[in-house]
Amino acid sequence: MANPTQLGVANSNWTIPNALSALRLLGVPVFFWLIVGPENDGLALVILIVSSFTDWLDGFLARKLNQFSRLGELLDPLADRLYVVAALAALYIRDLLPIWVVVALILRDVLMSLLLIYLKRFRITGIPVHFVGKAATMNLLYALPLVLLGTYSGLVGQVAHVFGWAFLIWGITMYWYAGLLYYRQVFGMRRELHAS
User: Fold this and answer.
1) Taking the domains of the chain in order of start, what are their residue ranges?
2) From 72-76, 81-85, 116-120, the region with the lowest mean pLDDT
3) Which of 30, 67, 107, 169 has its CA 20 to 30 A from that of 12?
């Protein structure tokens, strides 16, 4: 893994990408409340679309402005994960998702948390994000609003339902596959530590 200074990581946490990530985090409870409270699905979808755009924008600006930071590395995946958890919980409460979907995704996150706790024994605070893991999260971020949109009547609802479940199953599969890759990566790192 590259040294943060080699990557041009910013010394300050006051960066535009971090501000965008913080805004995304503030949108999570609003998004959740809109689905389970007044059931304003349209506005909830708008928040999710804006969040997805700012997710892309903060990464683009971090590269363009060379504004990398350790805080940004933590905030970006945290916001993604919280949106997925909020959407899962809200859609389950609304009876739009079965319990096995919620269990499959939360169990994988629990196993990853245990892996990170294990890594702390070796003074490793994190592992590089794998492309498959990022792709799995993006599939889930596409899937969950489409499942919500699938409750609408007519052709739009029917198409959204089919694509939502396709993205969801593919996302769950990739999510678990990425987890296996992370475990393999960690045990490879452990062998290197023992060898040195």
Assistant:
1) 1-95, 97-196
2) 72-76
3) 30
Q: Between residues 100 and 141, which one has the greater pLDDT?
A: 100
Looking at residue 34, its amino acid is L
- Residues 113 and 169: beta-carbon distance below 8 Å: no
Question: Could you identify the residue written with the tokens 């339902």?
Answer: 161
Tokens representing residue 41 in the block = 């699905």
Helix (H) or strand (E) holding 180: helix 154-195
* Helix and strand counts by DSSP (H, E) for the chain: 6, 0
Q: Which amino acid is at 56?
A: W
The neighbouring-strand residues paired with 9 are 68
**Torsion sign (Cα): 171, 172, 173, 175:** positive
Distance CA 75, CA 7 (A): 18
The pTM assigned to this predicted structure is 0.77
Q: Look-up: residue for tokens 């506005």?
A: 43
